[in-house]
Amino acid sequence: MKIHAVFNRDGGTFRTTDMKAFALHAKEIFEKHGHTFESESVAGKDIVKALKNAASKDDDRVLMAGGGDGTISAAADVTWKAGVPLAVLPAGTMNLFARSLKIPLDLHAALESLASGTVEHVDISTANERTFVHQFSIGFQPQMIKLRNTLEFNSRWGKRLASMRAFAKAIGRPPRFAVRMTIDGAPTERSVSAISISNNPYGQSMLPIADIVNRGELGVYIAERLSPLSVTKLAATVLMGSWRKNNDVNEILAKEVDLHFPHLHRRAKATIDGELIPLERDVTIKIHAGELKVLVPAPPASK
Residue ranges of the DAGKc domain (predicted)? Predict the structure, then answer.
């Protein structure tokens, strides 16, 4: 394989990494497995341009993206549209898509597993024109992220601490909004506090990640009108891994979801793969089964 890696030097682990030494280490690992490897380390603001430039080269390459969930989401969008395989190198805080792909979170182990990996077809989803590999969310999560972004943090642990502080602030006033939904052709109207739609349903892990990435179904999670107490209880069930028993959350599997917000505030936000975006009045969410090519660790050898 020909590997071209784009590392976001401003993201997560790479902020404190000697990127020149890391690139040489990565090259050694991939060449040991018989591949060719080249890389570039760019600033976060230049990551999309670098990914698009690399994906446009007509030389049957695999495009590796190294960074946090935002970097990986951007890379998935670029590689899906270009028809290029994506290799995910987890260097962020949560690394949610990497976890779903069963890629080790230790960078050395991740490089070794990818160097001996295979290209597989997995699902990718869209919300109108925006792609996502993890989650589209409205309501409580965007509110919490907006609060978190007002706090200062300089490390992964600082970001986690800021998230906890933002959560503590957000539970005092859970959002409530009206939404008209059509789920696989079935219409319904509700007043809710949160909707999250995942690229494949969440598994049994404590983290909200998919166990299976080629199921071809969206996971639709609807939290009814929440009070501060019910938000606290929901957070507790998430931490204990028992959130499916929480009566305040409905889980529905679907191929396509249409959302309409009749009373949309002009500054309303949604999140896609953890990044804040403006919320549109009408949003159509679809899953594109098997359309994203990814490099994943080889399955364990059978005994």
Answer: 44-131
